Amino acid sequence: MSRPVRPALWRALALSCAIPGLLCRPALAQQVAAPFVDAPPTRDGTIALSEITVSATGVPTPIATTGSSVTVLTSDVLQAQQIRTAPEALRQVPGLTVVQTGGAGGQTSVFIRGTNSNHVKVLIDGIDVNDPSTPNRSFDFSQLQTEDLSRLEVLRGPQSGLYGADAIGGVISFVTRRGEGPPKVTAFAEAGSYGTFNQGGRLSGASGIVDYAFSVQHLRQADLPVTPFDVLPPGVPLRTAFTDIRSVSTKLGAQLTDTFRLNYLLRFSDSAYLDQADGGFPYRPTPYRNLNDQQQLLMRGEAEWTPLPGFHNVFGANYATFDRLFAGPLDPLAPPTSSTTLGERTRFDYRGDVQLAPGHRLLFGAQREDERFQATGIDRSNGNTGGFAELQSAITDRAFLVANIRHDANDQFGGATTFRIAPSYTLPTTETRLKGSVGTGFKPPTLSQLYQDYPDFRFFGNPALRPEESFGFDAGFEQPLGERVLVGATYFETDFRNLIQTAYLPTFSTSVNVGRAVAYGAESFVAVTLTDTLSGRVDYTNTVTKDEITHQELLRRPRHKVSATAIWTPMPQLTLTGTLVAIGAFVDGNRDFSLPRLKNPGFTLVNLSANYAYSDTLTLFARIDNLFDQRYQNPTGFLGAGLAVYGGVRVTAF
Fold first, then answer.
1. CA-closest candidate to residue 140, choices 98, 92, 196, 81
2. What pLDDT shows up at residue 279?
3. In order of start, what are the domains of the chain with their CATH numbers?
4. How far is residue 161's CA from residue 445's CA, in Å, rounded to a whole number?
5. Cα separation, 577 vs 566, whole angstroms
6. How does the average pLDDT of the chain come out, rounded?
7. Is residue 334 very low, low, confident or very high in pLDDT (cuts 50, 70, 90)?
8. What is the predicted pLDDT for the residue at 34?
9. Are 176 and 124 in contact (CB under 8 A)?
């Protein structure tokens, strides 16, 4: 059902697929490893990724030395839980609300600490993937699969001091795996409920001065009921949703000398999603389906240079395209209406970091970014030039500080200066860690909001729009109770101003900067290692939001969220996991928003998984999603999946 990929793109993909095969041949040169985004080794030589954050500072940093609120999920955790898509992974993260219109390919939005879904900066291997082809420049998480991920990080709170535009509520960073060691091939296949059939494969390794990783993934879900029966008009049959997501990626590196390294990334995904079409006014489901098709191409080249010990430089260039097609309703008796949008982004960047003294590091950088938006009747571009500096200091062996400042000069609206300060201190004797942060964020208006007109609806863009802005802070603690228990809590608050909203005037409507809102609450957790083979964690998030113009609660922000995870390894070959996510009641509109405010009762989901390593090369796995067959809607008007059972096999060859 997807559109054909342009011939030039197929040639690029074919080349990226062929290169890893050539690199698998043995090389005579000794392998040189110089990781950039990987964590530094611990004293015993192992790498403790779970204790390291990259997103909080821009370089690998122990979480205990930064005051930022950050959650890290590694590939080992995702594989143990058998999580296939980014939305599934993000549901368990504290402070996050994931809203998905039905199946695996349905439009997926993420809210961080009560902020809007377009207030989240999303990165894949350092590439900004906030989508300029959409009206609000938000990223649709539905097409992102997890098979090739090394880790994902969620950084909560305003982060524009380091990341610039769009980081009003936080940053979500996905990092894919890099090749290492001898050649290794891994493949998996699974099948299960709702016509699900997923496959994936990966080839990776290192040979001489070169490391490589190539992966392919395919997710298919053919028969998921998404439309609730109570919203179907009389005589209209239920049309199930169909999802088909394909992705391919290549990650290459070459350590040319002890001080110089080249990196290259190419990633392409093609997502087709068919769901029941709405028609008429007010909108009601029809007997037909819509097609939503997305193609996304990401490329990045990077050169790393370390001319002196303690002085590291990265020169990079990104290119990203976001190509969307909407067609429907797919009525066999009439040609469907269709629309296309195209977003493009290029970026050139430099970042340096220098060790000023033991425990003190200075980061600095600059970037130039240009984006373009094309749709019917519009072809517009905008650009931004930004620079930043960040200081990381170990004031003592217990007191740490991270502070950054950034200035952006946007071609459309001018300049914006943002900052973030995040201290952390560990008390002697009790080992209580006190942490906190304060920072600002901004989001410039999108090209659609500035220039896109809909004359048939008397709606017009507004070139005079200003950026949305935020100011936020948090403060908390973490307290070990013996060697096996850790507890903690964090209070947060974020204020928003100049929010862009629609104004309805006597003869037309447009977007204006009139919105103000506040979000505040607390995140708390208990993490327990009961035995060497059994561990678990429980998180609770309380979020209060208020529109300060209407004095009403913001939509789709549940006040209460509980997530719990447990991992048990009763024998070396067997790993069992359990996950619970409970979402409290929240305010929402119905499917066509003819009822703009109603109460959604919330829901609770329980998932189980089992992985059995039959041998070094063969693993059997099975999982149950929504164990108690909870019937829920999130958002209102779109059914989530009921009880589902899956099983499969993973094969590894060295």
1. 98
2. 83
3. 7-470 (2.40.170.20)
4. 18
5. 6
6. 91
7. confident
8. 24
9. yes
Q: How far apart are CA 133 and CA 292, in angstroms?
A: 13
**C-alpha–C-alpha distance, residues 343 and 132, integer Å:** 5
For the chain, what percent of residues have pLDDT higher than 90? 86
Report the DSSP pairing between strands 170-176 and 120-124: parallel
Q: What is the pLDDT of residue 35?
A: 24
Q: Where are the beta strands (DSSP E) in 67-209?
A: 69-74, 96-100, 108-112, 120-124, 127-128, 149-156, 170-176, 184-192, 196-207
CA distance 499 to 444: 10
DSSP state of 446: P
CA 235 distance to own-chain centroid: 40
Which residue shows structure tokens 């960040």? 390
Place of tokens 């499969």: 648
pTM: 0.92
Give me the half-sphere count of Cα atoms (radius 13 Å) on the Cβ side of residue 410: 20
What is the band of 183 on the pLDDT scale with cuts at 50, 70, 90? Answer: very high
In angstroms, the Cα distances linking 351 to 20, 114, 309, 314, 348 are 28, 32, 16, 5, 11
How much is the pLDDT for 1?
44
DSSP state letters, 171-207: EEEEEE----SS-EEEEEEEEETTTEEEEEEEEEEEE
Quick one: which of 96, 109, 209, 86 has its CA closest to 541? 96
Check: CB of residue 228 under 8 Å from CB of residue 639. Answer: yes
> For 261-284, how does the pLDDT look when each residue is reduced to its tens digit (9 = 90+)?
999 999 999 999 999 999 876 778
Question: Residue 514 pLDDT > 90, yes or no?
Answer: yes
Task: Return the structure tokens found at 94.
Answer: 């504290």
Judged against a pLDDT cut of 80, whether residue 423 lies above it is answered with: yes
Q: Strand 149-156 and strand 170-176: pairing?
A: antiparallel
